[in-house]
TrEMBL record:
This is Transcriptional regulator. Pfam families: FCD, GntR. Residues 1-23 are annotated as: Disordered. Keywords: DNA-binding, Transcription, Transcription regulation. Residues 95-218 form the GntR C-terminal domain. One of its GO terms (molecular function) is DNA-binding transcription factor activity. InterPro entries: GntR_C (IPR011711), TF_FadR/GntR_C (IPR008920), Tscrpt_reg_HTH_GntR (IPR000524), WH-like_DNA-bd_sf (IPR036388), WH_DNA-bd_sf (IPR036390). It comes from the Bacteria. The lineage of its organism: Bacteria, Pseudomonadati, Pseudomonadota, Gammaproteobacteria, Pseudomonadales.
Length: 251
């Protein structure tokens, strides 16, 4: 009986033995960690010269790290402007939710009728890790543990292409969670995943699909983002204008 555990994220993958890490890997991991741990705010400028000095890297190495982060959706590379941390928005989050619902429903349908006990215990271990991270307020560890459940289910579905695609969507979700003004993961999210695992233990994969949809919709409903700045005075003072309109009606 084997225990299937989630594979490493791109940031955790090690080069083959005998090969050195690419110079940009340290910067890639550092920026990714700073974003997930909320030490870098949405739209924060990422000056290449400053990053090169801080990490002792060439301009080309810094650019490669930024391009990798852009592929993850964590960084934007506007033309003729400094790179900046992506600013998530509700519209983008809605599209991400649609993609995850479609993909994760299919993953659950590909699971065996019954999971082995060791596999179920490994999934439960990921949920317990989430609870531990909540107590320690380990935000980055919490995101990794939550994603671990979804990645492990994708591994059990035995389709590496679906798993790779899900890993990309999970990195996008992690970014949205990290940059949300609220904390979308709490004890209730852990309970939702635990109930989902219990359905799988009972062989009720259809019930697990229902719980997965409920879990994902709840997660995305709790996301709150800072509105992007605007040059439109009416948009900037929409709340004030609405208050004045209400006051006039009352008069």
């Amino acid at each position: 009986m084997r225990v299937i555990t989630p594979g490493p994220t791109p940031a955790q993958q090690q080069p083959p033995q005998g090969m050195s890490r690419p110079p940009e890997q340290t910067l890639y991991e550092a920026l990714q960690g700073a974003i997930l741990q909320r030490r870098l705010a949405p739209a924060a400028a990422l000056d290449k010269a400053t990053l090169g000095q801080l990490f002792g890297l060439s301009s080309n190495a810094v650019q490669r790290a930024l391009q990798r982060l852009a592929q993850d959706g964590a960084v934007e590379l506007p033309a003729n402007q400094p790179a900046r941390v992506t600013r998530p928005c509700a519209k983008r989050a809605g599209k991400l939710l649609q993609a995850r619902l479609s993909l994760e429903m299919q993953i659950l349908r590909l699971l065996p009728a019954r999971l082995e006990q060791a596999e179920l215990e490994s999934l439960c271990g990921q949920v317990q890790r989430q609870r531990d991270c909540l107590q320690r307020r380990d935000h980055a560890g919490l995101i990794e543990a939550v994603n671990g459940v979804h990645l492990q289910l994708a591994t059990l579905a035995d389709n590496p292409w679906l798993r790779d695609f899900l890993a990309r969507l999970l990195r996008q979700t992690a970014l949205h969670v990290a940059l949300s003004r609220t904390q979308p993961y709490d004890a209730s999210a852990c309970d939702e995943q635990q109930r989902l695992i219990e359905r799988l233990a009972e062989g009720d994969n259809a019930g697990a699909e229902t719980l997965m949809e409920h879990h994902l919709r709840n997660l995305f409903a709790r996301l709150r983002f800072i509105p992007p700045p605007t040059t439109d005075l009416h948009a900037a003072f929409a709340g004030r204008l609405a208050s004045r309109t209400t006051a006039r009606i009352r008069r």
